[in-house]
Amino acid sequence: METELKKKYNLIDLKITSFMADYGMIVLRLGLGIIFLWFGMLKFFPGLSPAEDLVRNTVYFIDPDLFIYVLALWESLIGIGLITGKFMRTTLLLLFLQMPGTALPLLVLPEVVWTHFPFGLTLEGQYIIKNLVLIGAGLVLGGTVRGGKIVSRESENK
């Protein structure tokens, strides 16, 4: 037999998890969009992006002055697509096509990303490794392009 306290706890827990299920995806999409738009826009202004030198040193085989603007536009388009929620398949394709390039410094510039391989990361290395979370967020959002959504178990049974 449930105690009154346990019933109140379960009711509060249901409301919280239902709120998270209802709004989590939009917060994830908007947050990821803001990150991409912000980081992309910084690259349009020389010296503002903390990743600019890393990008320039990684893609030395392409004119970095041109590439930084292409990357700025690419990231900004991803951000706009995520924020608006329009063209999500294309937006997520751009995101997933960009991710391998963000890992390139791990191979091309190991001295810049590792203090002690394989665990000691520099700030640049941490900046790159955090992209695993962006990939995960993109996968979760990709699961919604055909109408999928997160539903709390209790609200599903209503």
Walk me through the topology.
Blueprint: H1 4-43, H2 52-58, H3 64-84, H4 88-108, H5 110-113, E1 114-116, E2 120-121, H6 123-129, H7 131-142, H8 153-156
Antiparallel strand pairs: 1-2
Helix pairs in contact: 1-3, 1-7, 2-3, 3-4, 4-7
Q: Summed up, what is this model?
A:
With 158 residues, the protein is mainly α.
Structure, explained:
It is a single chain. The chain has helices at residues 4-43, 52-58, 64-84, 88-108, 110-113, 123-129, 131-142, 153-156, and strands at 114-116, 120-121. The radius of gyration is 20 Å and the shape is elongated. The model has no long low-confidence stretch (mean pLDDT 93). The chain is mainly α. Helices cover 73% and strands 3% of the residues. It is built from 8 helices and 2 strands. The protein has a two-stranded antiparallel ribbon. The longest helix has 40 residues, at 4-43. The chain has one domain (16-150). The two termini are 22 Å apart.
Assess the beta-strand content as a share of residues. Answer: under 5%
User: Which oligomeric form is depicted?
Assistant: single chain
Number of helical stretches of at least 4 residues? 8
Which structural class matches the secondary elements? mainly alpha
Number of strands: 2
Radius of gyration from the alpha-carbon trace, in angstroms: 20 Å
Q: Helical residue percent?
A: over 70%
* Largest sheet, spatial ordering of strands: 1-2
The N- and C-terminal alpha carbons lie at a distance of 22 Å
* Mean pLDDT reading: 93
Number of domains: 1
General form: elongated
Q: Give the low-confidence spans.
A: none
Largest sheet: 2 strands, antiparallel
